[in-house]
Amino acid sequence: MYNFNMCEKFKNLKNTEYDIALLLNKKGILSANELQEILKVDKATIYRNLKSLIKKNIIRKVSAKKSFYELNCNIHNPIHPHFECIKCNKIYCLKPLSAEDTINISRYTNFEIHSIDIKIKGTCDECKSMDN
Amino acid sequence: MYNFNMCEKFKNLKNTEYDIALLLNKKGILSANELQEILKVDKATIYRNLKSLIKKNIIRKVSAKKSFYELNCNIHNPIHPHFECIKCNKIYCLKPLSAEDTINISRYTNFEIHSIDIKIKGTCDECKSMDN
DNA sequence: AACTTATTTGCAACTTAGTTGCATTTTATG
DNA sequence: CATAAAATGCAACTAAGTTGCAAATAAGTT
Ligand SMILES: [Mn+2]
Ligand SMILES: [Mn+2]
Ligand SMILES: [Zn+2]
Ligand SMILES: [Zn+2]
Predict the structure, then answer these.
(1) Spacing of B51 CA from D17 C1' in Å
(2) Per-residue pLDDT for chain A (132 aa), expressed as one digit of tens each?
(3) In chain A, count of helices (H) and strands (E)?
(4) What CA–CA distance (Å, rounded) separates B4 from B28?
(5) Domains along chain B?
(6) Which residues from B are below 8 Å from A114, CB to CB?
(7) Nucleic acid strand D within 7 Å of A31 CB
(8) pTM given for the model
(9) How far is B116 from A87, CA to CA, in rounded Å?
C-alpha cells in the first residue's frame, strides 16, 4: 500500500473532497453510488465534489456500464487500461500501458490527444467458473 | 462506399431493424436519439431494435458521453478505435487497429477477451480552430 | 468574541438515457 | 378468412447526473 501523504495534491483538500480521495485511495475504484453509501452525504454533494476533483486532476472517471472513479496521482496509480466483465460488470485495473504501446496507439489520430482510454471487455475468471 | 448487400447478415432484417441498419450504413455512427429523430418511431422501438441488432452481432455500441451505434459488418466496418472530442463530444472513427497492436493490447489481461475498445480523447481540429 | 463573507451542504425538482408492461397494430401462416 | 406470432406505440418507470436555492458551516476581519 502506498502512503496517502506521498501525493502532494491531496494536501489542500477539505471536507467531502478529502473523504472521497481517502476512500478511493483505500478502495481503488468506486462508483458514485458506492461513495454515497459509504460517506452518507447527499448525491449532489458527491457529484459536485467528483467534478471538482476531476477538474483539479486528482481523480479520473472510468466510463463503463456505469461510471467509476479512481485516483489520478502518478505515485499511486498511473494511467492504465481496464477490464470490464460483461457478466458481472466489475471493473479490473490492469497494469499501466508501456511507453511503446502508448505511442503506437497515439498514432491512430492526428487530433490533439488528451487521454487514451483502453477498455478490454470479456468474462472474468470468477464469472467464467460459474458457467456451465 | 461499400455495397450494403455485401453483408450477408442484413438479408434477413425486417422493419425497424432494417431501417436502422440502412441508416447506420449511410451515416456511419449515430446515437439512439439521432436514429429516432430520423426514423420517427417510438424510442422503445429504437432501443428494442438496437438491442436485438447487437444480439445478432450486426451492430455494436460505442460508449461515449452518450452511446452511439455503428455497423458490425466485417466487410463494411472492421473494429477500430474512436476519437472523442472533449469539446463537442463528437465521435470520429479511426483506422482499424493493426494485428500487432491488437495482440499487444490483449496481453494486458489473462481474462477471456470479448472485445477491445480504444477511445482516444482530445480536441478535434474543428474545435481547436475555434479556441483563442 | 462578534460580525461579515465565502464555501459547502441538503433538499427537491429536474433532465436524459434507457427499460418494461400492456394493449393495439401489423405481419405471417394454414 | 381465421388465427397465431411478431412489432409497435404509449405511458409509466428507473437510475445517473444536474441545478437552484435556502440553510449550515467555515474562514476572514475588526
Ligand atoms: Mn483503474
Ligand atoms: Mn466507429
Ligand atoms: Zn465477472
Ligand atoms: Zn470537437
Answers:
(1) 24
(2) 445 555 777 877 879 999 999 999 999 999 999 999 999 999 999 999 999 999 999 999 999 999 999 999 877 788 899 999 998 899 999 999 999 999 999 999 999 999 999 999 999 999 988 865
(3) 5, 6
(4) 12
(5) 9-74 (1.10.10.10), 78-132 (3.30.1490.190)
(6) 86, 121-123
(7) yes
(8) 0.89
(9) 16
